[in-house]
Backbone:
């Protein structure tokens, strides 16, 4: 049986860990459509006691991550700007280059294209360019961790890891036996052809093709993919789609190597 947890396999329970996670959950309640929230709003979204939500809001406001807007409502604080700047410094070049590649990939294949960053023992969707089809795939879990065992982007990243690192991950997240053998065989196939594919892995009726992206040091940092309804991505077309995906991944790598932040589509 596959273990689908996305936490670091070396993580152990430490005092206050649950409180930290809940505080992060409270912080991520705020977004473009939720700029000002009350304790009641947060409590409703997270299923927690209103008094508990109020304490978290007060603590986050005291740290500068939130600000008290008066009348019991809170918004993001100025301290979050430094987090945004740190993120941009670390990943801005990749996202700038990948942005052009994703638009071209979407237009060439006709399906939603996305960029997935490796984050420890998981991956997160950080950018997507949605298909023009009325019925298309849209990632709703942007920024949320997803297991490296689930979906084509995950498997593309996992297959690109150094063999020893990959083996350690599989030891911790799969049971020895037929399931481990199945995963290992699929990873071997991905390494041989250079791309991963999945059909109905996370969402029934949805197919995906993905390829890993490496940085200047050759370390896997992300994956790009196209995804859409299975009936528009039948098995017989996957090789052609894979060619576009792998070409986009290679183009991103080449421009990262050259240090180009803004480039024309491949």
Residues:
């Amino acid at each position: 049986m596959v273990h689908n947890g996305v936490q670091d396999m070396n993580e152990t329970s430490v005092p206050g860990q649950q409180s930290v996670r809940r505080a992060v959950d409270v912080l991520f309640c705020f977004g473009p459509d939720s700029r000002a929230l009350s304790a009641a709003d947060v409590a409703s979204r997270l299923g927690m006691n209103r008094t508990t939500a109020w304490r978290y809001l007060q603590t986050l406001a005291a740290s500068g991550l939130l600000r008290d807007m008066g009348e019991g409502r809170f918004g993001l604080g100025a301290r979050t700007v430094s987090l945004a700047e740190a993120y941009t410094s670390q990943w801005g070049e990749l996202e700038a280059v990948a942005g052009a590649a994703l638009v071209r990939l979407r237009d060439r294949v006709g399906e939603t294209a996305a960029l997935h960053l490796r984050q420890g023992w998981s991956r997160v969707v950080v950018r997507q360019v949605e298909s023009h089809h009325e019925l298309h795939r849209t990632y709703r879990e942007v920024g949320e961790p997803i297991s490296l065992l689930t979906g084509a982007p995950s498997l593309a990243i996992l297959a690109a890891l150094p063999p020893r690192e990959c083996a350690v991950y599989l030891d911790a997240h799969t049971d020895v036996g037929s399931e481990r053998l199945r995963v290992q065989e699929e990873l071997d196939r991905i390494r041989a052809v250079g791309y991963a594919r999945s059909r109905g892995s996370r969402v029934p009726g949805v197919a995906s093709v993905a390829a890993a992206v490496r940085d200047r040091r050759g370390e896997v940092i992300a994956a790009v993919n196209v995804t859409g309804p299975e009936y528009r991505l039948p098995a017989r077309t996957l090789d052609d789609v894979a060619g576009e995906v792998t070409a986009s991944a290679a183009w991103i790598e080449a421009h990262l190597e050259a240090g180009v932040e803004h480039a024309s589509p491949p």
The beta strands are 37-38, 66-70, 73-76, 112-119, 122-129, 146-147, 196-199, 206-214, 220-229.
